[in-house]
Amino acid sequence: MHRTDLIAIGELAARTGVAVSAIRFYEAKGLVAALRTGGGQRRFLRADIRRVSFVLIAQQLGLSLDEIVAELARLPAGRTPNGADWTRISTALRARIDAQIAALECTRELLDNCIGCGCLSLKKCGLYNREDKAAQRGAGPRYLLGDRAGEVAEVG
Questions:
Q1: Is pLDDT of 146 > 80?
Q2: What SS3 class is residue 47?
Q3: What angle is formed at CA 107 by the lines to CA 54 and CA 55, rounded to 5 degrees?
Q4: Whose C-alpha in 62, 123, 145, 151 is 20 to 30 A from the C-alpha of 84?
Q5: What is the maximal distance between C-alpha atoms in the chain?
Q6: CATH for the stretch 3-112
Q7: Do 23 and 52 meet the contact criterion of CB atoms below 8 Å apart?
Q8: Residue 53's CB: how many other CB atoms inside 10 A?
């Protein structure tokens, strides 16, 4: 390994926009691994810029820390991940991303169709959820969770 393959924690922080304290936290959680100099200073592989960037992206997608750890564990240790390595991870996350997109599109449609009336009341809404029948299916945003208005009305 060449000296130019290693960067200090401050450089990793600057390159990723993440605080040094966050990088120490990521190290403690096993998301990145530091090498130590003779004087005990942390040095990271230049490839850790990509790992930290992945952590930021995964957080934006709503992955938990445990899920991020599991995905990064699929990357090779001791060498810079290549395109095939990252493709394997992105393929595994594709279904989750597609589900999030579908949920957002559904939410957008529901907002356009329901809140536009101005009543803002599930108990009084005569157009979309008369007498709050959606509550019969359980807690939470039933239509966003996949229930359909016609299906909900049949319950009970």
A1: no
A2: coil
A3: 10
A4: 62
A5: 73
A6: 1.10.1660.10
A7: yes
A8: 14
* φ/ψ of residue 35, rounded to 5: -100, 155
- 10-14, 53-57, 92-96: least confidently modelled range: 92-96
SS3 content of the chain, % helix, strand, coil (to 5): 60, 5, 35
Q: Return the bridge partners of 42, or none.
A: 36
Distance (Å, rounded) from C-alpha 17 to C-alpha 152? 47
Average pLDDT on 31-42 reads 88
DSSP 126-147: SSSSGGGGGGGG-SS-TTTTT-
Checking phi first, is residue 62 left (phi over 0); if not, alpha (psi -120 to 50) or beta? left
The amino acid sitting at 29 is K
- Specify the pLDDT at position 144: 67
- Locate 135 and state its tokens: 């509550």
The mean of the pLDDT values for the chain is: 80
Give the range among 25-29, 49-53, 119-123, 136-140 with minimum mean pLDDT. 119-123
First to last CA, the chain: 68
The CATH 1.10.1660.10 domain(s) of the chain lie at 3-112
